[in-house]
Amino acid sequence: MFPKSLSLTHLVRPSSIVSGKIPAIFMFHGYGSNEEDLFSFASELPGELMVISVKAPYDLEPFGHAWYAINFDAEQGKWSDDEQARESREKIVNFIDEAIEAYHLDENNITLLGFSQGTILSYAVALSYPEKIKNVVALSGYINERILVGDYKKKDHSKLNFYVSHGQVDQVIPLEWAEKAPEFLKNLNIDTTYHEFPVGHGVSQQNFFSFKKWLQERI
Predict the structure, then answer these.
(1) Euclidean distance between CA atoms 7 and 35, whole angstroms
(2) What is the pTM of this model?
(3) Are 141 and 173 in contact (CB under 8 A)?
(4) Based on the number of CB atoms within 10 Å of its own CB, is 68 exposed (0-12), middle (13-18) or buried (19 or more)?
(5) Which of 145-152's residues contact partners 24+ apart within 8 Å by CB, and which partners?
(6) Per-residue pLDDT tens digits for 188-215
(7) For every residue of 21-85, which 3-state class applies, written as one string?
């Protein structure tokens, strides 16, 4: 199946389902990567899922893409462009709506899978618009409360399911940032599974099989 021309560039692996509405998983890569990165998981994911791997909208030099800028300033240190991140949050929400219509997806069975910056955006989308998302696989990221919608606490998050994992020796995003997620999510009445793995900023085979099993139980 060729990807359709929608507002964000993406790759598609078709679902094994031939009639009716289709469950889908949307993948969001990390800073400096592209839509082909997480798509390498596609062949190993449950066949009934349509896999849609999305390219971030901002180009980096000399190559790669980002959901928002990360700036390195001598005085301020490393800081993220939260305004750009909020814009990407809305671009993703709009794209999901487009894809649901274009690919005849089941709007009640939408999963997000993110890595690093893609996870930060997956948190932002699901916590801001919980009515649109069923499951989130949050790999090697953290919750940035500044890029959530202002009234997110008033929304009903009880139908969401989160799988959160992080490397114990992650040199890019500190483990303690990820460790805050389970309690944050629990306070929003969200069912959460949390795992740590003895790796750096990446996804080990053990981690992959762990979230794959979790997904299979929730499709």
Answers:
(1) 14
(2) 0.96
(3) yes
(4) buried
(5) 146/82, 147/82, 147/85, 147/86, 147/89, 147/120, 147/121, 148/123, 148/124, 152/127, 152/128
(6) 999 999 999 999 999 999 999 999 999 9
(7) CEEEEEEECCCCECHHHHHCCHHHCCCCCEEEEECCCEECCCCCEECCCEEEECCCEEEECHHHH
State the Cα–Cα distance between residues 127 and 121, nearest whole angstrom: 10
- Across the beta sheet with 10-13, the strand order is 10-13, 50-54, 22-28, 105-115, 135-139, 161-167, 191-197
Instruction: Indicate the DSSP class of residue 103.
Output: T
Q: Which of 127, 22, 11, 27 is nearest to 67 (CA)?
A: 27
Residue 128 to residue 44: CA distance in whole angstroms: 29
User: From CA 204, how far away is CA 208, in angstroms rounded?
Assistant: 6
Q: Can you tell me the distance from the alpha carbon of 199 to that of 207, in angstroms, rounded to the nearest whole number?
A: 10
The letter for the amino acid at 88 is: S
